[in-house]
């Protein structure tokens, strides 16, 4: 199992660790799908972002960085939704399993990125 760590954006788009959001599989198990990472580095605007999805196609201006692990695309027993939010002003995606606990100023809900294990 791999760990999904929560990171929050600080000043100058730096990140600080906030703990473990959940776990994903290091190798494919029955019913799981690859969880891909896409990366965007916009040095002109001093922005950097990671976009995680079960879709292999990179969004515009993002580079494909490979499979990060394996997740579920629909709920399975014991799994939790790994939710994706986006802040267009700073060009940043944020992921969480507990949005009520997070301060999501200016972040817009995009949907469930995957189902992971707590």
Question: Any key phrases for this structure?
Answer:
three-stranded antiparallel beta sheet, 8 strands, single chain, 56% strand, 118 residues, mainly beta
SSE topology:
Blueprint: E1 2-9, E2 15-24, E3 33-42, E4 47-53, E5 63-71, E6 80-87, E7 92-96, E8 108-116
| Helical content class | under 10%
Give the count of structural domains.
Answer: 1
Strands in their spatial order, largest beta sheet: 4-3-5
What gross morphology would you assign?
A: globular
Radius of gyration: 14 Å
How much of the polypeptide forms β-strand, as a percent range? over 45%
The separation of the N and C termini measures 11 Å
SS elements, strand count:
8
Structural class label: mainly beta
Largest sheet: 3 strands, antiparallel
SSE run: EEEEEEEE
| Number of discrete helical segments | 0
Average pLDDT confidence is: 84
Assembly type: single chain
Q: Name the poorly predicted regions.
A: none
């Amino acid at each position: 199992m791999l760990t999904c760590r929560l990171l929050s954006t600080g000043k100058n788009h730096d990140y600080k660790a906030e703990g473990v959001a959940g776990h994903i599989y290091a190798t494919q198990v029955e019913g799981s799908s690859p969880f891909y990472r896409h990366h965007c580095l916009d040095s002109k605007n001093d922005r950097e972002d990671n976009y995680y999805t079960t879709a292999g196609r990179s969004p515009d201006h993002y580079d494909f960085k490979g499979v990060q692990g394996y997740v579920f695309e629909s709920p399975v027993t014991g799994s939790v939704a790994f939710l994706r939010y986006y802040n267009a002003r700073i060009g940043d995606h944020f992921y969480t399993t507990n949005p009520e606990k997070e301060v999501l100023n200016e972040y817009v809900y995009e949907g469930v990125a995957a189902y992971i294990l707590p």
